[in-house]
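Margin note: ligand = phosphoenolpyruvate.
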Amino acid sequence: MTAKKLIAANWKMNGSLALVEAVTQQLTSLSSSVDVLICPPATLLAHFPVSQHYSLGAQNLSEHSGGAYTGELSAALVIEAGASYVLVGHSERRQYFAETDELVCLKMQQAVSAGLTPVLCIGETLTERQQENTEQVIAKQLAAVYASHPELLAKSVIAYEPVWAIGTGESATPEQAQTTHAFIRRQLAQFDSAVAAKVRILYGGSVNAANCQALFTQADIDGALVGGASLKPAEFMQICQSAKE
Ligand code: PEP
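Resulting structure:
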């Protein structure tokens, strides 16, 4: 468990200049005892004022560093727009854009070599959980990164997001989340115990102001990746406040 929690907002394909304004206003009163990351649509990144209260992240990046890839964004472009983090391997990208573990690794490499911190999203589907394959799925997703580039996990944040909990209103229970986070940490320790102790493991999946406190008291939960509730500035602020040391 790391000392300071990280609360990350994933706006997905939502938001507006008005929401940038509302969220930045809310966060001005936040203390430094929690780290906050906002991942808006890339077009909004450059509209956030530079602030000590939050960092910015992109929701995706190209596996290429530049060139003739119409519609894509490189690590350098999102850095220039203000990002210092990037979400990689979100389940919506794996599901709707056919992102494989191999592609996720390439994107992580691009991110790390350009100086971005990847937030590697992993998690099982409902069927995989019902078949009691949660640990197997997660072990495979982590091993895919470690096998190709062992140095990347140490430079990443990990977000455990059970696919069945994303956007459904059905969060994992604190105990379910803790069990899987502890498993993730044990897996990381197999690769490198120093990395396992220091890498932040966020929980994501229907986190809100009402359920976050119980999640944050779990030993291996180092913060949250918040989708829907991050679009409501006051509720997002409450979640950030609950995560203070
Ligand atoms: C997400 O998209 O990463 C997420 C966790 O969404 P929600 O909080 O809406 O379940």
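Residues 174-191 form the longest helix (18 residues).
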